[in-house]
Amino acid sequence: MRILLVEDERKVASFIARSLRENAYAVDVAETGEKGLELARENPYDLILLDIRLPGLSGIEVCRKLRQEEVETPIMMLTARNQVGQRVEGLDAGADDYLSKPFALAELQARVRALIRRGFSKSGAKLSFADLELDRHRRRVTRRSEPIPLTTKEFALLEFLLLRAPEAVTRSEIVEHVWDCHFDSETNLVEVYINRLRQKIDHNRPAKLIHTIRGVGYRLGLPE
Questions:
Q1: Which of 3-12, 51-60, 79-88, 163-172 has the lowest mean pLDDT?
Q2: Which among 15, 77, 81, 147 could bridge 100 via Cys, Cβ 3.0 to 4.6 Å?
Q3: Of the candidates 53, 109, 97, which has an alpha carbon nearest to the alpha carbon of residue 73?
Q4: Which domain holds residue 13?
């Protein structure tokens, strides 16, 4: 899952981003409202964390513009404590939640999980294809009811393949959804993780579900 953090205080941004990455989220960081708006328009995020007080375009203006453009990504505003008027304005602009600074990381993580769960309603908390099932709430994968342990990136990759199954996805689409914008596109990490998934999902099973589409990318589905 991928999160956009728009925060101009570098130490705060680094602190929040590190905490989220340690919990398996890919995180893009923007230091201005203009950059945050640009990234939110270009990339499909599961959640946007948006500081209200930003240089140039404010967080409230960014939120309002995104909602006017029908971007439905859940948005959580980061506000100064006791600024009730700002919180109300942010919610009126289309934010889904707010968190007052300073905050405990445990509360941030809980709020993030809650907002992302709300976003699951469009595609469902459980994803499945044939005898493969992925539970996004419990972060559990099974095939024929047999548990399959996955690393955080393997889980994120399989989740994306299932969301698009049985359509093919390109390598660049995988990078956009599973890794953040600092990903080195010259590495072969995508291929490495696809091979790891194959070993865990398809090895010693008669029906192979993960396929390479030459010149396109990969797809999860039954053999054609």
A1: 79-88
A2: 81
A3: 97
A4: 2-121
| 139 shares a domain with 72 | no
Structure tokens at 112: 């993030």
Average pLDDT, the chain: 87
11-15: list long-range contacts, CB under 8 Å, 24+ apart.
12/101
Pick from 103, 8, 122: nearest CA to 55: 8
Number of compact structural domains in the chain: 2
Q: Are 6 and 109 contained in the same domain?
A: yes
Give backbone dihedrals phi and psi of 182, rounded to 5 degrees, phi first. -90, 5
* Average pLDDT rounded to a whole number, residues 47-65: 92
Instruction: Read off the DSSP letter of residue 120.
Output: G
3-state secondary structure of 147: strand
Q: Which amino acid is at 124?
A: G
